[in-house]
Amino acid sequence: LTLRRLIADEPEMTPAEALADVDFAGNAPADRPYVVANMVATVDGRATVAGRSGPIGGEADRELFHRLRTRVDAVMVGSGTLRVERYGALVRLPELRAAREEAGLPPLPLGVVVSRSLDLPLDIPLFADEESRMVVYTQSDADLPECGAQVDVVRLPAGDADMVAAMSDLRAERGVRSVLCEGGPRVLGALIRQGVLDELFLSVAPKLSGGIDEPTIVTGPPLPEPVALDLVWALDSRECLFLRYAVRR
Ligand SMILES: NC(=O)c1ccc[n+]([C@@H]2O[C@H](COP(=O)([O-])OP(=O)(O)OC[C@H]3O[C@@H](n4cnc5c(N)ncnc54)[C@H](OP(=O)(O)O)[C@@H]3O)[C@@H](O)[C@H]2O)c1
């Protein structure tokens, strides 16, 4: 058994350079997209400070967050996160839209929302954005009013395999080969429980949140057994630690 010191004098790179060679879509299985999640946590393992994730990360974390969006066909988020974080168009900066186009992707990823109730925060900027295309997966038969964004509502069968069904629909019906899930903790828990998470990008910010009401990055019903992960890389910005894990199959 040996230990390696991670803080070393390796050549430095930007977040864009770190992600330049990733090929999520190329690793997609036949029946669903390749699914990666990106989360940020405090050193005490909390996914929020006073109910928000914004205060946790720093500049490097935000850059990686936005750069990951340039590498995928679709960005997925739970209705809880959509509501709290008040999402807007998924890629706004021309430079990031250009990075997507250079990678052979459309300027904006498909937005994917999962909601059991279909009680969505329709007043957030994302739903008003006429350039954005979204698909909402739900088990509800409620109606969703028209909004500025182009939104498809897909009704899933009742049951506990909703993430599997949503991923299968994304691949078969929409040609989506890579999905970035940005949380929240309950949706991430469901992806893991249903066996459709491939990778986790975890930023560990040098802060303590405290408080029993701040969730960890994975919540919801317990996992049947601990899920083993393999460390793919560990980077640091002298502030935040960036861990990339593959879910062991
Ligand atoms: N640290 C981070 O990286 C990070 C990332 C994202 C979010 N957050 C924080 O996490 C909090 C929100 O997280 P959250 O866990 O409450 O919400 P969430 O995971 O974003 O969304 C949960 C909602 O997803 C819907 N859903 C659909 N299928 C589901 C399934 N199979 N299992 C569970 N939920 C399903 C339900 O919507 P309906 O209620 O509409 O039926 C449920 O209420 C916010 O405070 C946000 O700031 C932190």
Structure overview:
This protein is an alpha/beta fold and 249 residues long. The protein has a nine-stranded mixed beta sheet with strand order 5-4-3-2-6-1-7-9-8, sandwiched between helices. The longest helix has 13 residues. The protein is globular, with a radius of gyration of 18 Å. The model has no long low-confidence stretch (mean pLDDT 95).
SSE arrangement:
Layout: H1 15-19, E1 34-42, H2 59-68, E2 74-78, H3 79-85, H4 94-102, E3 110-114, H5 125-128, E4 133-138, E5 150-155, H6 162-174, E6 178-181, H7 185-193, E7 199-205, E8 229-236, E9 241-247
Parallel strand pairs: 1-6, 1-7, 2-3, 2-6, 3-4, 4-5
Antiparallel strand pairs: 7-9, 8-9
The protein binds NADP nicotinamide-adenine-dinucleotide phosphate (NAP).
NADP nicotinamide-adenine-dinucleotide phosphate binds at residues 39-40, 47-48, 51-53, 56, 78-81, 84-85, 114-117, 119, 162-163, 182-187, 190, 219-220.
